[in-house]
Amino acid sequence: MITNMQRFFQNRPFLFAIFALIASRIAGLGTVALIQLVQPDLTIKEDLGWLLMLLYAGVVVSLVYWTNTSQEVGLKKPHAAKEWLLMMPMAVLPALIVIENGIQSWGFAQNLVLVIAAIGVAINEEVLFRGILLRGFMKWGPWAAILVPSGLFALAHSTNAFVGGDAAFAVYQTIWTFAAGVTLSAMRLRMNSLYPVIVFHILLDGIEYFSTGEYGVHTGVASTLWLQLFASVNVVLALYSLILFNKREKRRLQDAFRTRIAT
């Protein structure tokens, strides 16, 4: 039985996005605060950040299922299994990270933390930006749904410069997160599923975390040439994904037109 509150959020995706964001932060930060009451020496940055990210993701996904919007948000299989192959060109991004920083094991405990953090961050960001928000902006058409959440995604990452991140890194990160947002939004619409983009996001963040041994805000400085290359490759991948999406959209419109003619 659907309650009035569930129906309210089903019909108001933007308010639902805000509610999910606030609720997940309250649950995550509240849990961490309780842990710190017992263990005051534990900090978010050094000890509990992974748990915070996992809680964020868990609450957001739980709320999606609570509102019965999982299908609309994209938590379902792609049109066809072969659609996963369309994500293959994006493997160049984790490859660039490995080339620049390498990758290594940091010990079992830290490796586990890095994996959990990558999973939590990817699920939280994809469900919020390419799921709930994208669904809301579909009211104004697919191009608004691709571009606006991508801009908000980039804006959210631009704040890293103010919380301990390297300023130059943050500037380039803002550029490539917008391009990456476009890529993942277009692919999510092309495949009608969040699963491939979530898996890719986990892989990308996981490689990044294992290359530095840390997650979250970056304090190290990559070479300017690498930052420019990484941003440029993201722009190329955004164009690639838009071409794929546009082909599917044209085919969909043609099929709809033929159906109307036939009836």
Structural overview:
This protein is an all-alpha fold and 263 residues long. The protein has a domain at 79-262. 76% of the residues lie in helices and 0% in strands. The protein has ten helices and no strands. It has helices at residues 4-11, 13-38, 44-66, 70-73, 92-101, 108-137, 142-158, 167-191, 195-212, 224-262. α6 crosses α7, α6 packs antiparallel against α9 and α7 (142-158) packs antiparallel against α8. The longest helix is centred in the last third of the chain and has 39 residues, at 224-262. It is globular. The mean pLDDT is 90.
Structural class by SSE content: mainly alpha
Q: What level of helicity do the residues show?
A: over 70%
Uncertain segments of ≥5 residues (pLDDT<50)? none
The N- to C-terminal Cα distance equals 36 Å
* Rounded Rg: 19 Å
Mean pLDDT: 90
Q: So what's the overall shape?
A: globular
SSE succession: HHHHHHHHHH
Discrete helix count: 10
In percent, how much strand structure appears in the residues?
under 5%
The biggest beta sheet reads: none
Give me the count of strands.
0
